[in-house]
């Protein structure tokens, strides 16, 4: 049953709000994925504070204009399109989507938006290979901490050498 004009306006309003709040947006062809695969993907993305919506292309284009986002290239919003909207971590949900597409061998990334700039499909796939924010934070903390461990080791070595020297003096003087 077709949607009424009021339902379409509500859809556009909701999508415009989501697009304006989203940190990144990815457009993907979902054709070929079964409903069970889609529901598994959606539940996984929901845990990462992201949504995966299937919307009519015309309504999506109107919502993009309403959210003051840049125009996408002509091939990004053609055919059956699903929209991934991320609200916290920009990378992790994109990784989950590209993994699901790769594992199922069905669907493809069409393009996306990050920080208000259009990305091609290859850039979105390249972005999915980056480590997550938590992994990057752990790497930075490790890099900042390693010189401190080196300094502690050097300072402990001097004290340890002093103790060894005193122990050798004690032994050479006949102490036990």
Automatic annotation (TrEMBL):
<keyword id="KW-0699">rRNA-binding</keyword>
<dbReference type="InterPro" id="IPR047865">
    <property type="entry name" value="Ribosomal_uL10_bac_type"/>
</dbReference>
<comment type="similarity">
    <text>Belongs to the universal ribosomal protein uL10 family.</text>
</comment>
<keyword id="KW-0687">Ribonucleoprotein</keyword>
<dbReference type="GO" id="GO:0006412">
    <property type="term" value="P:translation"/>
</dbReference>
<dbReference type="Pfam" id="PF00466">
    <property type="entry name" value="Ribosomal_L10"/>
</dbReference>
<dbReference type="InterPro" id="IPR001790">
    <property type="entry name" value="Ribosomal_uL10"/>
</dbReference>
<dbReference type="GO" id="GO:0005840">
    <property type="term" value="C:ribosome"/>
</dbReference>
<keyword id="KW-0689">Ribosomal protein</keyword>
<dbReference type="GO" id="GO:1990904">
    <property type="term" value="C:ribonucleoprotein complex"/>
</dbReference>
<comment type="subunit">
    <text>Part of the ribosomal stalk of the 50S ribosomal subunit. The N-terminus interacts with L11 and the large rRNA to form the base of the stalk. The C-terminus forms an elongated spine to which L12 dimers bind in a sequential fashion forming a multimeric L10(L12)X complex.</text>
</comment>
<comment type="function">
    <text>Forms part of the ribosomal stalk, playing a central role in the interaction of the ribosome with GTP-bound translation factors.</text>
</comment>
<protein>
    <recommendedName>
        <fullName>Large ribosomal subunit protein uL10</fullName>
    </recommendedName>
</protein>
<dbReference type="GO" id="GO:0070180">
    <property type="term" value="F:large ribosomal subunit rRNA binding"/>
</dbReference>
<dbReference type="InterPro" id="IPR043141">
    <property type="entry name" value="Ribosomal_uL10-like_sf"/>
</dbReference>
<dbReference type="InterPro" id="IPR022973">
    <property type="entry name" value="Ribosomal_uL10_bac"/>
</dbReference>
<keyword id="KW-0694">RNA-binding</keyword>
